[in-house]
Amino acid sequence: MSDRIKIKEILTSGKADYEATVKGWVRTFRNNQFIALNDGSTINTLQVVVDRDNLPESELKRITTGAAISATGQVVASQGGGQSVEIQATDIKIIGDADPQKYPLQPKKHSLEFLREISHLRFRTNTFGAIFRIRHSVAFAIHQFFNERGFVYLHTPIITGSDAEGAGEMFQVTTLDLNDVPKTEDNEVDFKKDFFKKPTNLTVSGQLEAELGALALSDVYTFGPTFRAENSNTSRHLAEFWMIEPEVAFADLNDNMDLAEDLLQYVINYCLDKHDEDLKFLESRLLKEESQKPQKDRSDMALREKLKFCVDNKFERVTYTEAINILKNSKPNKKKKFQFVIEDWGADLQSEHERYLVEKHFKKPVILVDYPKEIKAFYMRMNEDNKTVRAMDILFPGIGEIVGGSQREERLEVLESKMKEFDVPIEEMQWFLDTRRFGTCEHAGFGLGFERLVLFITGMTNIRDVIPFPRYPGNAEI
Q: What average pLDDT does range 300-311 have in this prediction?
């Protein structure tokens, strides 16, 4: 490894007249002389010029699309256009062959649907190389943001005995023999014979456990996988996805909104700074894709312009009540163009409503606050009107809701009352209620869907394309 130089380093330095060894995968091989080599460090390929007079014919035939090779030679100023430097190879070794009759990623345009069928190889394409380099940077920037602000990274359990908020169907975890399930005298499953001696599931959220950390460490965040066993076969849902969930003590709803807005702008700015070439490629890809759509369905802004707009503008803060009035009086609603027509206060907003507010009315990211208590979770703090809670959702163009959060209900009596109202088992949640019994204080937090953020930054339209190995109904490959 010590003698290898990454292609990104060679291209960005622009230096010439030195010997280097590069290793990567062949994208194309033209005229038995020019190799376009990529090693994943950048979207760009490095041209390797083969000395074909000194390379046996048998070796030349092995330089095929997809093959892994090592090339050593002199880095020189490029004679052709498109790159500043190239390598005049004096030594080429084929590390791993790729049979051109069988290798499915030949140099031509492939549909995203086809690439999902070969997700084990799609990392090698320009599109997915760009997506997953950006995904890495989004994750890194999130950790850096919280670390700079003194937050503690808390690992919350993946296997849990509680449903955080009735957020969705849960995957059960068991070691019981499904062909011979032990039963009680009442013919119920005897979970006392299971591994944990009780029913357990894969988590839908680390929020409740994060609250425990915040009420001792002040500022914490989780960043881990969460699971929903919902039969949602859509471009916006996954059965396994990642969530970022900060919880902050001594914070109210305004503090929560400020933190979420700062985080989103920080991460987007980081990606704009570090990934201009990847974003430029994805922007070009998106423009080609949208050129096939009717004008009314195309984005108002190009990808990088949209990202800069989110960084440069304050998010619009609007109450749920104001939003309902805007939607009720909108043309799509009056002409019944919405699939879910808004008629009364109390309606649960759908993606079409959220996108109308962001893309058509305000034309910028929107934070909606003060939702009706009936459509939000039990732990959200009741407002003085006893009708609404201190909830917030952040809506982004093309995505809809990307963040959901609230100021938490810190008053024991109110929380217990709401738990009864929502049929949350109080006896099983005494550990949670203890934080309200002993040294309670106002606190707030939110959940940010990691894949939805990556979806927004990359301009992709299907969430299955921004996670390495998507899990959805009927699919758990690899």
A: 91
Over residues 54-93, the pLDDT tens digits come to 899 999 999 999 999 999 999 999 987 778 999 999 999 9
Q: How far apart are CA 233 and CA 83, in angstroms?
A: 43
CB 224 within 8 A of CB 247: no
Contact predicate 227/203, CB 8 Å? yes
Residue tagged 């312009």 (tokens)? 305
How far apart (Å, rounded) are the C-alpha atoms in residues 23 and 140? 26
Residue 362 main-chain phi, psi, to 5 deg: -90, -30
Which pair of tokens denotes residue 267? 């991460």
Quickly list DSSP for 426-478. Answer: TGGGHHHHHHHHSS---EEEEEEEHHHHHHHHHT-S-GGGSSSS--BTTB---
The token pair at 132 is: 């997953």
Q: What does the alpha-carbon distance between residue 49 and residue 36 come to, in Å, rounded to a whole number?
A: 9
Q: What percent of the chain has pLDDT over 70?
A: 98
Phi-psi region of 150 (alpha: psi -120 to 50; beta: other; left: phi over 0): left
**32's torsion region: left (phi>0), alpha (psi -120 to 50) or beta?**
left
Rounded to the nearest angstrom, the gap between the alpha carbon of residue 256 and the centroid of all alpha carbons in its chain is 21
Beta carbons within 10 angstroms of residue 184's beta carbon: 11
E strand segments, 261-384: 316-319, 366-372
Q: Is the pLDDT of residue 165 over 70?
A: no
What token pair was written down for 140? 């890194």
List CB contacts of 276: < 8 A, sequence separation 6 or more.
304
Let me know the angle formed at the C-alpha of 102 by 97 and 104, rounded to the nearest 5 degrees: 100
Q: Kindly give, in sequence order, each residue whose CB lies less than 8 Å from that of residue 193, ignoring residues fewer than 6 positions away.
A: 176, 182
Secondary structure in 3-state letters for 145-198: HHHHCCCEECCCCCEECCCCCCCCCCCEECCCCCCCCCECCCCCECHHHCCCCC
Report the alpha-carbon distance of residue 209 to residue 432 in Å, rounded: 8
Q: Supply the angle between the helices 276-290 and 126-148 in degrees, to the nearest 10.
A: 130
Of 322, 282, 326, the C-alpha closest to 461 is: 282
d(CA 121, CA 109): 15
What is the length of the chain?
478
423-468 pLDDT, tens digit per residue, is 888 998 999 999 999 999 999 999 999 999 999 999 999 999 999 9
| Cα–Cα distance for residue pair 347/374, rounded to 1 Å | 10
pLDDT over threshold 80, residue 477: yes
Summarize pLDDT for 339-356 with one digit per residue, the tens. 999 999 999 999 899 989
